[in-house]
């Protein structure tokens, strides 16, 4: 593929992505992620696949198939992960916490660096949002024992504020 065509495709990916917003059109993100992957733009494909997985989670759908696709793109290449520090669940109703908790556990139990960092982002966002209710403190404790050192250290350094 020619360089100018790759640049245009990359620009289209930015138009589809909303940087973890709740308004990601999952079908468009899926199609664009597939096109980006086919073109070899794997970091951008991973970003859109994660956008779609998070958008599904915000709609109370743990969407394991979406997480599997995203993990396939990042698992052996954690450098493809976007910056997770600003990840938020936005206006997601707190009642959706069960789907988020199941997803965080699935990611943690996978045991890989990328999955651990994604679990950490979910736990950080959900814990802060709920005042660190018991399930999120339990998940944080489990992440502190994670086999992947970067995940374990990030969890160790996170100080939950609020809750009991």
Structure description:
- By secondary structure, the chain is an all-alpha fold.
- Helix content is 66%, strand content 0%.
- The chain is globular.
- 40% of the residues are buried.
Relevant terms:
mainly alpha; 164 residues; 66% helix; globular; 8 helices
Describe what is shown at a glance.
By secondary structure, the chain is an all-alpha fold. It contains 8 helices and no strands.
Give the low-pLDDT segments: none
* Mean of residue pLDDT values: 85
Number of alpha- plus pi-helical segments? 8
Report how far apart the termini are.
Answer: 55 Å
Number of strands: 0
Characterize the largest beta sheet: strand count, sense, and whether it forms a barrel. Answer: none
How big is the Rg? 16 Å
Net shape? globular
Structural class: mainly alpha
Q: Fraction of residues in helices? A: 55-70%
Taken in chain order, the helices and strands follow as: HHHHHHHH
Strand content: under 5%
List the helices and strands and how they pair.
Elements lengths: L2 H14 L9 H14 L2 H17 L5 H11 L22 H14 L2 H18 L3 H11 L4 H9 L7
């Amino acid at each position: 593929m020619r360089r100018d065509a790759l640049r245009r495709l990359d620009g289209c990916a930015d138009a589809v992505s909303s940087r973890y917003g709740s308004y990601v059109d999952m079908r468009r993100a899926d199609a664009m992620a597939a096109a980006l992957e086919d073109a070899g733009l794997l970091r951008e494909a991973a970003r859109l696949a994660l956008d779609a997985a998070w958008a599904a989670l915000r709609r109370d759908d743990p969407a394991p198939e979406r997480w599997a696709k995203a993990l396939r793109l990042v698992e052996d290449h954690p450098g493809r992960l976007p910056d997770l520090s600003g990840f938020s669940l936005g206006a997601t109703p707190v009642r959706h916490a069960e789907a988020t908790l199941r997803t965080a556990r699935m990611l943690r139990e996978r045991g890989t660096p990328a999955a651990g960092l994604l679990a950490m982002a979910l736990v950080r966002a959900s814990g802060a949002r709920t005042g660190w209710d018991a399930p999120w403190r339990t998940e944080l404790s489990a992440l502190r024992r994670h086999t992947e050192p970067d995940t374990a250290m990030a969890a160790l350094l996170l100080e939950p504020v609020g809750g009991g």
